[in-house]
Amino acid sequence: MRKLAIKLGISLIAIAYILLFRIDFSRFYSVLKSIHPGWFALALFLHTFGYLISGLRWKAISGKLDIELPLSFYIKSYLVSTFFGFFLPSRFGGDVIRIGDMSSKDEIASGLSTVFYERVVGLFSLVILGTIAIATSPPKVKGLLIFSLAVLGSVLLITSVLLLKPGLLLLLPKKGKIGEKIFKTSRSFARLKSSRLFLKVLAWSFLLQINVIIHYWAIGKAVGIEAPLISYFFLIPTMLILMAIPITFQGIGIRDYFAISVFPLYGASTEQGFLFSSVDLTIAIILAFVGFIVYITRK
User: Domain ranges in the chain?
Assistant: First the structure.
């Protein structure tokens, strides 16, 4: 609870600072009235389409463990995890829900290993995309991108160890049913060690990252930001990597400060930058509500 309170505090302080000292509310209201509904609809569609890509990626991983579930199961689980993710301290908190969903259909080891594998390969694709973006990013954002990549790269290095050496799990203390679950999880990780599977999941991850970037570009167009699409290929990986650092609640505050600091470099106003992050949060809330509907209606 203490860590959660600290994260909430940092997020609230960041938002309060932006609202009190960086935003002109009359200009913000003017920008708000000028939101382009067509671009907003496209951004909402692309975010929704991302659930399909994510579902196909997760299904490919679980298939390696001989788990055959309909694609709708994976998509619904993602939607439900989006809803619960708003009440959990980490941006990856919804993964707990997905692990639980998979565990209700199979062993908890399968849920843990497939979700973990998916996340690690997803981080790997983001690091690759960010590394490529360094070559094309302007000096004004290159330092920030390098810093964020260094942070994410450290996390990736640590988490990749379990995929490469799943037997290390067996070094954990084993007592009764816990020992049995550790053994099964280690065995599940071992079954996922396949270069063909890795490349397949990496391809889905790249497609998802590109979809995410275009989604954010559509948000930018909706609020009148005229930064070129190519700039989003290094701005968005930087923002996502920074948001993954667990110092705020759901990345709130980091995303907002990033938007009001970076987009003015491309001719946008501070108010447009803040509206950019607000629209992103609004779309997430809409889909979280859909996830709530799925949760109360699914059997």
Answer: 36-297
Q: What distance lies between CA 233 and its chain's CA centroid?
A: 16
From 90, 16, 89, 10, select the one nearest 274 (Cα to Cα): 16
- Give the model's confidence band at 160: pLDDT under 50 very low, under 70 low, under 90 confident, else very high: confident
Mean pLDDT computed over every residue of the chain: 83
CB-based burial, 92-117: b 16+ in 10 Å, e otherwise: eebbbbbbbbbeeebbbbbbbbbbbb
What DSSP assignment string belongs to the chain? -HHHHHHHHHHHHHHHHIIIII--HHHHHHHHHT--HHHHHHHHHHHHHHHHHHHHHHHHHHHTTT----HHHHHHHHHHHHHHHTTSSSTTTHHHHHHHHHHHHS-HHHHHHHHHHHHHHHHHHHHHHHHHHHHHS-HHHHHHHHHHHHHHHHHHHHHHHHHH-GGGGGGS---HHHHHHHHHHHHHHHHT--HHHHHHHHHHHHHHHHHHHHHHHHHHHHTT----HHHHHHHHHHHHHHHTSTTSSTTTTHHHHHHHHHGGGGT--HHHHHHHHHHHHHHHHHHHHHHHHHHHH--
Q: How far apart are CA 150 and CA 170, in angstroms?
A: 30
CB 159 within 8 A of CB 123: yes
Burial of 139 (0-12, 13-18, 19+ CB in 10 A): exposed
Give the model's confidence band at 105: pLDDT under 50 very low, under 70 low, under 90 confident, else very high: low
Q: State how far the Cα of 81 lies from the Cα of 101, in Å rounded to an integer.
A: 10
